[in-house]
Design goal:
The structure holds two protein chains of two kinds.
Chain A lengths: L1 H29 L11 H11 L10 H32 L1 H15 L7 H8 L3 H25 L3 H9 L4 H36 L7 H10 L3 H29 L5
Helix pairs in contact in A: 2-10, 3-4, 3-6, 3-8, 3-9, 5-6, 6-8, 7-8, 8-10, 9-10
Chain B lengths: L1 H19 L17 E2 L3 H4 L13 E7 L6 H9 L1 H4 L2 E8 L2 H9 L5 E4 L3 H7 L3 E8 L5 E4 L22 H4 L3 E4 L4 H12 L8 E4 L2 H9 L5 E4 L3 H7 L3 E5 L8 E6 L1 H4 L2 H20 L3 H14 L6 H9 L6 H6 L4 H12 L5 H9 L4 H12 L1
Parallel strand pairs in B: 2-3, 2-4, 7-8, 7-9
Antiparallel strand pairs in B: 1-3, 4-11, 5-11, 6-9, 6-10
Classes of the chains: A mainly alpha, B alpha/beta.
Amino acid sequence: MQVSKRFCLKIVSALSILLFLLIWYLTTDVLKTVPPTSLPSPIKVCQTFVEKLHNTAPDGATLGVHILASLQVSLTGFTLGCVIGIPLGIFMAWFHRFDLLTKPVFDFLRTIPPIAFIPIMIILLGIGVLAKASIVFLSAFIPCVINTYTGIKATKPVHIWVAQTFGASRMRTLWKVAVPTALPFIFTGMKVSLNAAWTSLLAAEMLGSSKGLGFMIQMGRLLIRADVVVVGMITIGFIGFILSAILDYLETTFVKGGA
Amino acid sequence: MKKRLSLLIILCLLTACISGCAGGNGTSLSSAPASEGTSNAQPAQQNEVASENTSIGEPVKIRVAAMPQQLSLPMYYISQQGWDVKNGFKLELSTFQSGAPMNEALGADLWDIATIGAAGVLSCSVYDAVHIMSHEDSSAGIDFMVRPDSPVAQIKGYLPEYPDMYGDPDTIKGAVFMFPIGSGHHLLLTEYLNAMGLSESDISMVNMNHAEGYQAFVSGQGDFSATAYPTTDNYIKEGYISAVNMSSANCPYYDNVVVNRKFYDKPENQDALVALLTQMLRCADAFQDDQVLLDAMVDWYKVNGQEVNPDDVRNQVLERPFLTVADYTSSDTTASFKRMAEFFASTEQISQEDLERVFNNIRPELLEKALEAYNSK
């Protein structure tokens, strides 16, 4: 009974996508209420998608090249953001003096949009992958720190007292009690970071690049090729979906009791 | 029954929503441009609703898409001098920062006529706009700069037919070029590489606007940086060298006047367009006086929020002359636009079909009438 209900729900989800595609098709191809330069038909988008797999026109690279370039930048920045942001959030939340020292700087930096750092990054790091990855890092780093910090702070005092009663050291209490408690928050932070990473990636790629999905979208805009823009958007959505699914899987694997 | 009815209503609403997102299309009413690239040159005028004002005795309203640059100066000057109302039309200027938002605004039917550069090719290929005139030689100031200690700067006149061009194939190969892809600079690069017997695969291209390109270049990035006025002056002051420009590459580059197809196709607008072109010829003659041109340009900058010193902009203004009657009668002034369209097609940014559409949309008839009218006066 439970299985059939779940199956029905999945069918409904699939139907919602089909309904969206149907409306899109009706609006563009059948009723033609929207000009193709504003919104291309789903069929045209599919054609462009297939064409972009092997054709470099009109932006100078195939879709695969654009995807790889974007993944290289986004995953580098995202990984760095997580690797640095999560431990920083843990230390800030667990060690009061460290928190006093770093929080004012962090609170100041987190309010600045990462895109505002682009001119400085160009001067400091040039126009290569590193500069773009740094922008992505700044975007990914902040949600990781905030969520990890909140997660550690959310540890119930009674759990800490129990650990202390059993003679656990402060560091052991951190690793055995606080960090596992914070894991759902940490994963949520990583998901938010992933989204922020892609958002800033597009902004970074619109400046100083010759490949990448952001560049492809910008060229599509410049050349008034809405089909190329939509292909770029769908590709980003699809990659984001896959990466989110991977994070969901990791969350259910590592978080005690499931997500 | 209720479920079916609900589904039908949802379908209709969603369809209406998507259709509504398309913006104005096909009606004569339009609000002032709200594109991200717009700024208010004449806010009071922009907020007016453009209507089809074609009744006898009243001037025809022409919504002009302008840029805060020299190519749009004639439109401002005509409006300032009152030459528009006196000749049966009324200009309403809206300014855009570049050709790309201008084209987006054309898609939403927000302007009737535009002064535009390379992006005019896309106006004609995608939106079926009509090219009626090339009006300004803006070759000067479109350069690729190199550092004085660059190997490229050590070789000048490698090719006898291009005596002012710097570099040779060996020094250019592998270089990093920073420029806005798909712009006039892209055309210049193609000409440069072709002259040197190279192709785009021999170099690295980085898509950058002029301001960011300058910032990156002075901080040591890239080998060639694209520049246009007013940034060109900064490079020259700091001792950088122009390795190639439109003039040294023997590649004339003109700015253009294109008309929204919907406006062009209305017979009642034809006379207004001829009158406008006639006044543009009058402007070009007036601008033969350097001081008039300089003063008008400084004023145009001011209207757009830029305070400039006339001495600082003298070179950049005077180096880009407006085409006069003599130019139109002695040469094919549409050649630059055609070359640009061919370049777009050669780099597969537009298809061959689009290229044909661009060529079909180059219509010199109105200019011919304007020349006739101007000469008769």
